[in-house]
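Subgroup meeting minutes
Present: P.N., E.W., G.H.
Scribe: E.W.

1. P.N. recapped why we're keeping a running log of single-chain structure predictions: easier to compare across weeks, and new members can see raw inputs and outputs side by side.
2. G.H. added today's entry (63 aa).
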Amino acid sequence: MRDFATFILGAAVGAIATALLTPTTGPELRARIKLILQKRGIIEADDIDELVEMIASQVEDKQ
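Output recorded in log:
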């Protein structure tokens, strides 16, 4: 079971990295991250907006 959880986490990180490395504007980036997290059921719907803002702000700061 641990291997499966590791696989899922790796897939999620890969999907998010792909979304983040594709050139987009801030609002488009937030929408893409939110959509990926919702489709994969990675995080509860109530917490998605906060997480998306945190991820997007980290990416925008590094660019």
